[in-house]
Amino acid sequence: MQKPWEGRFREKTQEFVEKFTQSVSFDKRLALEDIEQSLAHVKTLLRAKVLSQEEADTLKKALEEIKQDLQRGNFQLREELEDVHMNIEAELTRRIGELGGKLHTARSRNDQVATDERLYIKREIKECIRHLKDMRRELIRLAENSLEIVVPAYTHLQRAQPIRLSHYFLAYREMFLSDELRFVDAYRKVDALPLGSGAVAGVDFPLDRFFTAEELGFRTLVRNSIYATADRDYILDTLYACATVGTHLSRMAEDLILWSTEEFGFVELPDRLCTGSSIMPQKKNPDILELIRGKTGRLYGNLISLFTVLKGLPMAYNRDLQEDKEPLFDSLDTVKACIKGMTLVLEGMSVRAERMMPQLGDPMVATDLANYLVNKGLPFREAHRTVGNLIAYLISEGKSLKDLNLKDLKEFSSLFEEDALKLLDPKWVADRRKTYGGTAKEELLRQIEIAKREEGI
């Protein structure tokens, strides 16, 4: 097949240029989307009386046959035809003759590729949201099963305050719920049809773009033809959503890597999800979690890569935009794999309450002792200093709060009474946090029920 643009040229394209400029090696992923939009474009051209009914029927039949060959793996794409669009057009022309060339009427590869990408992203975002929901359901299951486990919450990786472990799992569930909302927002922005914008200025055929949008399932149209072909914001939004999921996955991976060490021993990962060492027989490595943490860097890199491509482009379309696809495909593949990997870890890991609960430690109730004094009328700063002196005394004497009686407490403040001794029980302390979103058992039960309703459990 001759190249569609070679009429103006007097030299054959050099082989290096063909290899360097081709995109079919990666944009072949868009083949089914390209067929889908071509079928809609046929209907639009028929509606505009650019095609006869007979021509439209012939094109539709041939496109459906090519689609079947693609699905069966019987379609060989060729690099010398540059991209997926020209491969399909070449095959169409081979099968039905010159009529195949009519399909590109009122269409440029500029609005064609933008349409393919948007169709592809819409489908992929739905998959990402489905995977996120599966993972959140596992977090809710863990929250239900760990309601009676009280553990240290950490700030600065130092023991801070006692919480029920359910609270921890629900915190990540909230993160991944916000990630879904980012994907929903990206979907809303991508759900606009660019087809019919031509190369840059629109087209001079009476196309009913609203009809095309309805055929392809787009909510609305891209309103400006320059923006339609020059814009890749919809990909940036998608890459940002992927990168943020990666951030949250990486944080949880880091927690679980630490918690699975001998030093912590808070969780046990199943053998089937770990690997060993080629030299140290005793090793059991949390490789899935480490790779999730590592692959997050790729998600960031893909986002920055496209930002860098776009930042210096003059309006409108430039071939640089070909570089949008590999970061897009890689990020979507990577984030789906990472979510699935984390879901498997959450399904398979065992929580070791017998290792968690002994780590609570006396100092973790210090804030509650200070608040006790505040409720007795002492200004918070003075109460903070008083309890700080108490903790410093215990450290210097090698003692624990459990070693103290009411008389000892009164040495630091006469405001302490018998009821202050209840504050030495971390579980009792945790259940004092009854404010909306707190770690008290009754509040967590409410949060779990809401989460189950939201996730359709």
Automatic annotation (TrEMBL):
Superkingdom of the source species: Bacteria
Catalytic activity: 2-(N(omega)-L-arginino)succinate = fumarate + L-arginine
Keywords: Amino-acid biosynthesis, Arginine biosynthesis, Coiled coil, Cytoplasm, Lyase
Pathway terms, separated by semicolons: Amino-acid biosynthesis; L-arginine biosynthesis; L-arginine from L-ornithine and carbamoyl phosphate: step 3/3
One of the GO biological process terms: L-arginine biosynthetic process via ornithine
Ranges for domain Fumarate lyase N-terminal: 7-301
Keyword Lyase annotated: yes
Class of this enzyme: lyase
GO cellular component: cytosol
GO molecular function, one term: argininosuccinate lyase activity
Argininosuccinate lyase C-terminal domain location: 364-428
Enzyme nomenclature, EC number: 4.3.2.1
Keyword presence, Signal: no
Entry's localization field: Cytoplasm
Parts forming coiled coils: 49-80
Protein family according to the UniProt entry: Belongs to the lyase 1 family. Argininosuccinate lyase subfamily.
HAMAP family given in the database record: Arg_succ_lyase (MF_00006)
Record's protein name: Argininosuccinate lyase
